[in-house]
Design a protein that fits this description.
Largest sheet: none
Number of helices: 2
Order of helices and strands: HH
Shape: globular
Strand content: under 5%
Structural class: mainly alpha
Distance between the termini: 45 Å
Helix content: 40-55%
């Protein structure tokens, strides 16, 4: 498991408050929306999407501050 995969699995667990799930319980091919997988619904997917955008937005904001102004 790569560091990135671990971060994504931790994010899913944290955002959805999956107290009984450990990162190693989520395999790369685990079905997110099936009953035999995590059994997530559309609201869960929205929450994950919002959580994924937060670090990206702050990272791109920091990057933009280091760029020189354009004419």
């Amino acid at each position: 498991m790569t560091e990135f995969e671990l971060e994504i699995r931790d994010l899913i667990i944290k955002v959805l408050l999956l107290e009984d799930v450990q990162p190693e319980d989520i395999e790369a091919d685990t079905r997110l929306f099936e009953e035999d997988g995590l059994g997530l619904d559309s609201i869960d997917s929205l929450e994950i999407g919002v959580a994924l955008q937060k670090p990206t937005a702050s990272r791109s904001t920091r990057t933009n501050k280091t760029l020189p102004p354009t004419l």
